[in-house]
Each structure stands twice: as structure tokens, then as C-alpha cells.
From TrEMBL:
UniProt keyword Transport present: no
Keywords attached to this entry: Disulfide bond, Glycoprotein, Immunoglobulin domain, Membrane, Signal
Top-level taxonomy: Eukaryota, Metazoa, Chordata, Craniata, Vertebrata
PANTHER family the UniProt entry points to: BUTYROPHILIN, SELECTION AND UPKEEP OF INTRAEPITHELIAL T-CELLS PROTEIN 10-RELATED
SUPFAM superfamilies assigned: Immunoglobulin
Domain of life of the organism encoding this protein: Eukaryota
UniProt keyword annotation of Glycoprotein present: yes
SMART domains: IG (SM00409)
Protein name: VTCN1 inhibitor
Length: 168
């Protein structure tokens, strides 16, 4: 179907899939139901004023939550933590108010990608130098900035001497 909203997240992040309805007054939850689904798979289910997660798809177990304090004002958004590649899908937000049998449907597309640049090459290089020259892991009394400099001194000194000799 045509998505109302498209969201993007990287693996491991927390994402909020936005879904809001504008109620005439406060939403009454005692008789209403809120489904978050991917096709027929239940991502999150809320009924009679509380979460009802027995039928929740196991893949989403412990990673979904609603904004309870804002729900009565129409915020039906779903928060998904520790986003996985498998979360990439089109989500349906279905709100049923059984009193007047009014059903509202919203479609939210989530695209998930892997973030490749966790460290810049510079950071990586500095850590690598520090790791190599101090001869032990990062758990050292020296500060990371100090260690490479100490290690580099003999090297540059050696170069200078060699060059100096060369010019004589």
C-alpha cells in the first residue's frame, strides 16, 4: 500500500514510528484497541488500557513500547529499540474504537541499514598505534595521546640522525 510516512534507522538504534490521530476529546481506552502489525504479524497490541503482548511476534519481544502518557491525546506512535535488519518493513497502525466501531489505519514504512563508519580511519589509526607501541591494551596509565608520541620520538630522532649523516 501507499505509506503515510517513511522512516529510516540504522541497526542498533531506537526508532519511533509516528502515528497520531486527532481525537475530538481524550481517547477512551477502556474499550479501544491499538494494533501495530506487519501484514498479519503482531508487532505490538494494546487493549483495554494496557499492553497485551501474548500474541506479539517473538522477533519484537522486549523491544517495543508506546507513549502511554501521550496516547489519550492521540499519539499512537511505536518506539522500537535495538533496530534489526529484519525490522525493515511496512507497518500498519490500526486503531479501533469499539464504541462507534471506527477503525483508523495508517501505514508507516521503515527502512533499516547498517552503519559502516563506526570509527573514522583517524581514530582507528590512533588506537592501533597506541595498542601496538604501548605493548598492552588500552588499559594503561598513559593517556592515549601520550603513548604514540613517546613511541614516535626514537623513530624521528633516528631519521634526523640518518639524514644529518647523509648530508655531511
Amino acid at each position: 500500500g501507499q505509506s503515510d510516512t517513511t522512516c529510516h534507522a540504522f541497526v542498533g538504534e531506537t526508532v519511533v514510528l509516528p502515528c497520531t490521530t486527532t481525537p475530538p476529546g481524550e481517547l477512551i481506552f477502556s474499550k479501544s484497541m491499538l494494533y501495530w502489525q506487519i501484514d498479519k504479524k503482531i508487532v505490538h497490541f494494546f487493549q483495554e488500557g494496557k499492553d497485551s503482548l501474548e500474541a506479539q511476534d517473538k522477533h519484537f519481544h522486549g523491544r517495543t513500547s508506546l507513549f502511554w502518557d501521550q496516547m489519550k491525546h492521540g499519539n499512537l506512535s511505536l518506539k522500537i529499540s535495538n533496530v534489526q535488519l529484519l525490522d525493515d518493513a511496512e507497518y500498519t497502525c490500526i486503531y479501533k474504537q469499539s464504541a462507534d466501531h471506527q477503525t483508523k489505519k495508517f501505514y508507516i514504512k521503515l527502512t533499516v541499514s547498517v552503519q559502516t563508519h563506526f570509527l573514522s580511519s583517524h581514530q582507528l589509526h590512533a588506537d592501533f598505534l597506541f595498542f601496538n607501541f604501548s605493548g598492552q591494551s588500552q588499559i594503561s596509565s598513559r593517556s592515549p595521546t601520550e603513548a604514540p608520541c613517546l613511541a614516535m620520538l626514537p623513530l624521528s630522532f633516528h631519521l634526523l640522525v640518518t639524514l644529518g649523516v647523509w648530508h655531511l
